[in-house]
Automatic annotation (TrEMBL):
Domain Nitroreductase: 133-303
GO cellular component, one term: plasma membrane
Domain of life, per lineage: Eukaryota
Protein's name according to its UniProt entry: Nitroreductase domain-containing protein
Annotated source species: Caenorhabditis nigoni
GO BP terms in the entry: tyrosine metabolic process
Length: 325
């Protein structure tokens, strides 16, 4: 049997059927002429076919150009978005929406809270307030030891705090070594003394702390059995790019400290919030903390001594700190 070979317009290498079979068209034209049609009719048919092919070509070209245009627009928008995000991420702040995307990609799970009637809710809120209003900043500590497991539970409670983009940027350094606490105290007191002496004249904040019998000395740093040093990240890798997230991480870590203070009060321990002022970098280097961290606060932690005295401070009534709308 004779094997017929068809000449394909294109697509031989792909194995697909061609759009135009030239051999079939040639056979059709021969049969068209053999049926007695004039050469003019043949030319008309060829012309019509040419017009159809031209229209098909033009439509295909138009669609191709439209696809190219859409691709360029999408590419341009992507580049523009990257530039906008880069601009917004410059400086101390971070784009909140970018961090929020890290949260919404997480798997969602059901959230259930126990149903409590109004009377119990009111009672619980009053009990918690009565407990928290006893909180004071304590600068005199007992030598009584605190179980490390209690410290761990307190820090786990602080770790439940919300944070921007769920970054959880905090690190709690727990110092129990007397020698390390002594070195930290020396660094802190040297910085406090410089600030206290240099601003002693005419500084309103010095007058305020003098009324609280506060000086540059920090004996409670070494007296307390534990010293918590609260750190937070300064930079974070977001979308394969290192970004400065100092502002939001500082806020998130401050919220965690608030929860930690409530937890400390709940278990009967005491602390005093201590600012590192300008001593933070020196303390970080002494503890060999990474450059990506900054010290926010120091919290000496322990049981209050039996003879401790605290200022008789008056807190603002709720009417002065609340506005109803």
């Amino acid at each position: 049997m004779k094997k017929h070979t068809h000449h394909k317009a294109y697509g031989d290498s792909t194995g697909k059927e061609p759009l135009i079979d030239l051999q079939s068209i040639k056979q059709w034209l021969n049969s068209f002429g053999n049926q007695g049609h004039s050469s003019e009719a043949v030319l008309n048919v060829l012309f019509t076919l040419g017009v159809i092919l031209f229209v098909i070509y033009q439509v295909a070209s138009l669609l191709h150009r439209m696809n190219k245009r859409v691709e360029k627009q999408l590419e341009s928008r992507t580049k523009q978005r990257k530039v906008e995000v880069s601009d917004k991420q410059t400086g101390d702040e971070m784009v909140f929406t970018d961090l929020h995307e890290m949260v919404i990609r997480e798997r969602m799970i059901p959230y259930r809270m126990p149903v409590i009637n109004d009377d119990i809710t009111l009672r619980n809120s009053q009990i918690f307030y009565e407990e928290m209003k006893m909180r004071r900043s304590c600068r005199q500590f007992s030598s009584r030891d605190v179980p490390l497991k209690v410290i761990q539970n307190l820090l786990k409670t602080a770790g439940t705090s919300p944070s921007v983009g769920n970054l959880q940027p905090w690190t709690f350094c727990v110092v129990s070594s007397d020698s390390i606490k002594t070195m930290i105290r020396k660094i802190l007191e040297a910085d406090e003394r410089d600030n206290y002496v240099s601003r002693k004249k005419g500084a309103s904040w010095v007058v305020d702390v003098s009324q609280l019998q506060d000086t540059w000395r920090r004996p409670y740093i070494t007296d307390a059995p534990y010293l918590l040093i609260v750190c937070h990240e300064i930079f974070r890798d977001v979308h394969n790019k290192t970004e400065r997230v100092f502002h939001y991480n500082q806020i998130s870590t401050s919220i965690a400290v608030g929860i930690l203070l409530a937890a400390i009060q709940n278990v009967g321990l005491s602390t005093v919030v201590t600012s590192p002022l300008n001593a933070g970098p020196d303390i970080s280097r002494m503890l060999r903390r990474p450059e990506n961290e900054s010290i926010l606060l120091l919290l000496p932690l322990g049981y209050a001594s039996e003879d401790v005295l605290v200022p008789d401070l008056k807190r603002k009534p709720v009417e002065h700190i609340t506005k109803l709308y």
